């Protein structure tokens, strides 16, 4: 190789190494935050519904602090190179999406949309090409929520909340109907989608147990209708 | 339209997933198209490589320099054909799309760089530079169809050593072939040293370095065989040429094209997995 070519290669290499190092730094920060979030959200399984709002409030500031990280990342990534680097932070991002979705579900019982998640994490649309929230990562977050809710259905009953499993069941079925519409390739998203049916089965079993013993309010309603 | 922040019914969830479906389908279709184009590039590039091998081994009557120039000139048209395929991919690779689909285009691009660098070596006896490869991927105004990544450049070049090994072994039995083989030998040795320094940064390159080492060893063994036989005779080079032609013709039967190293790209394997 002639000198000029070697220099060219080295300059490209150095620039990329610098970007990589900077991203790594931010991903470490990002991971710290998402781990804190996971830690807080782990407590939903042992928190009674009265205390739930307070628990969610404690998660919010951490969730919002992710905005600093996304802003720092967007600063580092050169224009149009988003996909080149995204694998470095994609796991952290999916965890953050999961946290945002779970907090919203426990708060309002609904699904936070992709743009709303992006907004929660401070991802701005003008960063397109540098940092964005792709559908794939959002959907991974949604599946993680379903995984988590199948556990919550069980633990809510243990804590005496018989209504939650039924709400979860309806919510998860809606999401499953949504996922069924997608033409998924043979990738991790597809595999995780395939595993959703086990979560649904688990939730259904809880709903069945609760209904059978006439513990849940909604399972009492049809009975009333029958007697009318 | 999507001003609602929270979806709380199936009727609101389904349209959103319909959008996702469109988005994912669009992505997958584009990816498939690019993989197909990349396969076409691979095919054409392989043909160019075979063409170059044929020219340099068949036209041995010509003088050394001429063969190289002649071969490169005949490959020009083929290269233009491949370059027009790249031009066709351009609209699919604008802006951030390139960084998304780069790995789907890589296999073909690397094969092309292998062919291009082989032609370049035959013509100039030197390694094609990063800038020269990028220039070959530009339109008439000099605008790049897409940016060349360092990885594709280096991995393409790394395959060149295998072609040069075949070239050296095939020509060693011909007139002036020993000199050619010895040139190739030192060239490949330099390539290997150049790449070695860069292996920490590219995982794939590390694997290919192993193949390069094997190729180099084959050339060295062939050169050794020639040197040993030369020492036994005190003859002028021209007469040795005759002698060597007889000796090595046996060796090339089972050492050059026969046990070609496995060069299936790991990337190709990845893509195959995705299809399953």
From TrEMBL, chain A:
Pfam families tied to this protein: Translin (PF01997)
One GO process term, biological-process aspect: RNA metabolic process
Signal peptide interval: none
Locations listed in the record: Cytoplasm; Nucleus
ATP-binding in keyword set: no
Presence of the UniProt keyword Cytoplasm in the record: yes
A single MF term (Gene Ontology): sequence-specific DNA binding
Main location: cytoplasm
Coiled-coil ranges per UniProt: none
TM region(s), chain numbering: none
GO cellular component, one term: nucleus
Keyword annotations: Cytoplasm, DNA-binding, Nucleus, RNA-binding
Cross-referenced InterPro entries: Translin, Translin_C, Translin_fam, Translin_N, Translin_sf
Entry similarity comment: Belongs to the translin family.
Protein name: Translin
Organism (species): Polyporus arcularius HHB13444
From TrEMBL, chain B:
Annotated spans, Disordered: 251-276
Chain ranges passing through the membrane: none
UniProt GO MF annotations: sequence-specific DNA binding
Localization per record: Cytoplasm; Nucleus
SUPFAM superfamilies for the chain: Translin
Pfam families (UniProt xref): Translin (PF01997)
Alphabetically ordered keywords of this record: Cytoplasm, Nucleus
InterPro entries, per the entry: Translin_C, Translin_fam, Translin_N, Translin_sf
Source domain of life: Eukaryota
Bias (Basic and acidic residues) ranges: 251-262
Gene Ontology cellular-component annotations: cytoplasm; nucleus
PANTHER family membership: TRANSLIN AND TRANSLIN ASSOCIATED PROTEIN X
Record family assignment: Belongs to the translin family.
Record-given protein name: Translin
Organism, as annotated: Polyporus arcularius HHB13444
């Amino acid at each position: 190789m002639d000198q000029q070519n070697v220099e060219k290669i080295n300059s490209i290499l150095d620039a990329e190494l610098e970007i990589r190092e900077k991203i790594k730094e931010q991903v470490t920060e990002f991971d710290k935050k998402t781990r804190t979030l996971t830690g807080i959200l782990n407590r939903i399984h042992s928190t009674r519904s009265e205390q739930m709002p307070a628990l969610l409030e404690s998660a919010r500031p951490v969730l919002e602090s992710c905005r600093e990280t996304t802003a720092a990342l967007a600063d580092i990534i050169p224009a149009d190179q988003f996909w080149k680097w995204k694998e470095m932070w994609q796991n952290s991002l999916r965890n953050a999406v999961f946290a945002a979705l779970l907090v919203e579900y426990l708060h309002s019982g609904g699904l936070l949309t992709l743009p709303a998640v992006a907004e929660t994490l401070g991802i701005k649309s003008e960063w397109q090409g540098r940092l964005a929230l792709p559908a794939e990562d959002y959907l991974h977050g949604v599946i993680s929520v379903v995984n988590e809710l199948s556990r919550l259905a069980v633990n809510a009953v243990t804590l005496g909340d018989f209504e939650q499993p039924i709400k979860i069941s309806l919510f998860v079925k809606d999401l499953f109907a949504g996922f069924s519409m997608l033409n998924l390739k043979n990738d991790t998203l597809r595999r995780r989608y395939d595993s959703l049916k086990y979560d649904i089965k688990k939730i259904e079993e809880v709903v069945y147990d609760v209904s059978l013993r006439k513990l849940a309010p909604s399972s009492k309603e049809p009975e009333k209708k029958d007697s009318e | 339209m999507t001003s609602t922040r929270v979806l709380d019914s199936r009727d609101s969830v389904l349209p959103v997933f319909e959008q996702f479906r469109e988005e994912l389908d669009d992505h997958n279709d584009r990816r498939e198209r690019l993989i197909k184009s990349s396969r076409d590039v691979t095919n054409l590039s392989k043909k160019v490589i075979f063409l170059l091998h044929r020219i340099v081994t068949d036209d041995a009557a010509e003088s050394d320099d001429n063969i190289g120039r002649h071969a490169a000139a005949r490959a020009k048209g083929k290269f233009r054909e491949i370059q027009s395929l790249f031009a066709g991919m351009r609209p699919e690779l604008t802006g951030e799309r390139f960084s998304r689909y780069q790995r789907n285009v890589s296999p073909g691009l690397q094969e092309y760089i292998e062919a291009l660098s082989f032609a370049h070596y035959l013509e100039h006896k030197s390694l094609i530079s990063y800038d020269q490869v990028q220039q070959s991927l530009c339109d008439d105004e000099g605008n790049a169809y897409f940016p060349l990544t360092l990885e594709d450049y280096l991995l393409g070049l790394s395959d060149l050593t295998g072609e040069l090994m075949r070239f050296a072994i095939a020509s060693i039995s011909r007139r002036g072939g020993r000199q050619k083989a010895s040139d190739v030998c030192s060239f490949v040795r330099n390539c290997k040293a150049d790449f070695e320094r860069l292996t920490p940064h590219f995982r794939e390159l590390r694997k290919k370095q192993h193949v390069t080492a094997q190729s180099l060893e084959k050339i060295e063994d062939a050169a050794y065989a020639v040197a040993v036989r030369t020492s036994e005779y005190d003859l002028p080079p021209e007469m040795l040429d005759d002698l060597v032609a007889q000796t090595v013709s046996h060796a090339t039967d089972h050492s050059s094209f026969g046990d070609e190293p496995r060069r299936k790209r790991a990337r190709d394997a990845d893509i195959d997995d995705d299809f399953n």
